[in-house]
Structure formats: structure tokens, C-alpha cells
Write a structure and sequence with these properties.
With 357 residues, this protein is of the alpha/beta class. Helices cover 21% and strands 26% of the residues. The chain has seven helices and 18 strands.
Amino acid sequence: MAAEGFIGEHFLKKGTTDSGAKANAESIDARSLLVKRRRRSATIGRSIMEYQVVVLGGGPAGLSAAIYAARSGFSTVILEKMLPGGQIANASRVENYPGFVDGVSGMELGQSMHRQAEKEGAETVITEVTGIELADRGADSIFHTVKTTDQDVRGLAVIIATGSRYRLLNVPGEIELTGKGVSYCATCDGPFFRGKKVLVVGGGDTAIADALELSKFANEVTVVHRRDELRASRALQGNVLRTPKIQFMWNSVVESIYGDPAVSSVRLRNTKNDIISELAVDGVFVAVGSVPSTGFLGDSVPVDEFGCVITNVQLETDVAGVFAAGDVRHDSARQAITAAGDGATAALSARRYISSL
């Protein structure tokens, strides 16, 4: 059976007839493409949605990209797996985002950015991205196809802003107490632990930088590391070893995190002799790395050894029409404000790309 379908409203370049556009929609000048087109295949039962800009991820990078793309007059959709706002929505308080003198809850910040994106005309689809099929230039296709659990979404430009997820300890109590003393961002949450005792888990640059940041607020900072030496840079090691508030528990790992309703202690195991101990703390900061959310990309775009998308300074990948922004990209600063800046840059690059078609 042949696939049934229809073409919805579209803008035609000057001199193009409606019947001609229906016969060859994909050859229309890119700047005057249809605002949105839906097509349902009778053979496979999946809908196909078409936009000029498809943004993968609804965190600060993705929402900023959507705002700029929509304001440029492009039909824009945000594909988000969970709640718009991304990881920032989990922060009880954000005090380093410009414009909020008294701080703002992460949830409120994310929702405000999302409302602004939708006000500008961007649409949101809650779905999980499962893959991407690049445009086949040999077949004169100008659309990339994003696969999701619900439908296919095609776009002239795709902005990857799926972020990264913190690598978890995967110990009892970690998930239950996240946001209640368990944190993955010292810069975000450090000020909430003034005069408290906190634990930092990890031995790399991030962990030691977090320990130094927390020493500005906490009375006591304990760094727990599974080895007997740090992996952090020599400069950071020198700074942390000269900070009286910071102490170390070498050759140790966290086995459990306790507390109700908030963190009160941790259970530790010595990796040399298996001796178990318990330490009273008010907060646990996990800094054992992050995992970029790029598994769905396969080999479609280049990534570094950690799985982060490689881009140039304009946030263009090696694939024409595919961009990356925020924590998902190589060398990201991993802050909400820099992610938002990335989103704007990627959208402006996408605008130049679409205008060149």
C-alpha cells in the first residue's frame, strides 16, 4: 500500500506555484520552507514532523538555542526526554546566574527559559531521542532525520544540546538524598553549607577544585579518594594541600549515604584492609566525572575519547547542518550561563547555514 500523506501550510518563494511546491516540496528555497509539516505513513504507522531547526535537549543550551532560532523566524522544535530545564531544574537554588540578585530556584529558571522559548514560537515534544540519520547529499536531501521513541523529526539544522549526566556512585542513599545533601555541583550548592561538614568524593581536577570551592563555606572538608595519590594537576594539589580546612581519607570509598530527611553520615570502606567506618557529614559532593549524553549519535558525528561532540568555535561539527552546544560538547565549562551562551552561538551558526542553502 502506498503511503498516504499531506503537506500543511508553507511559505512559497516568489514565483513558485502552490501545485509546483506540492510536487517538489524539498526543492523549495530553504528560507521559505514550510513552517511545519506532518506526514503519517500508512505502512509503518510513524508520523514524520518537519522543522527548519530541531533542538535536542531542553536544558539552558537547548532552550537558548530555541529562543534564538525561533526569533530568527525558523520553525523550531525542542525534543526533551524529561522536564524542560535540564539538570539545572534539580538545583534548589541558583545564585550565580546573572540577573537574579537574590538567586532563583533551578526549577523556576528552567521553566522561565522554556516559557520564553515557547513565547517566541518554539514547540516542545516530550520524547526520547534514539538516533540520527544524516542528510543524504547524494540523493539531494537537505533534511537530517532525528529518530525518537514516538516519531521521526526532520530538520534542516540539528542542534545537539543533550548535555551530560553526572557519573553516580551507585550506592544506597545517593538517589534518595540527591538535593537533600547529596550534590554534584560545588559551585551551585557550596554556599548552602556554610559552617557545615562536607565530603568530596573523587581525586581529579573537578574534585579538588570542588574541595577548594567548598572550603570557602564549610568548616571542614574531607576528600575521599580510592587511591593513595591524587590525579589532579600539580597546581591544584599544591593549593589543596595548603588549605587547613581540607583533609583526606586515602584508599577509601563510599559504601552508603545515610540521613532522613537530609544527609547525616556516610559509610566508608578502606580499599586496602576493608575496614568499615562511619563519618558524620552534612553534605556529600560527588565529583567522579560525567558522562555525555551522546550514545544515540553512534558514529554520525565526531566525538572525543570521552564521548563529547567535537566542534569548532562556531559550534559547528564536521557534518554540515549539525551543531552542538552546552555540556555535551568538547571543552565545555559546564555552567548554566556558558551553556546558554553556547545555545545562542549554535543557533546563529544554524541561521547562517540555513540561509546559505
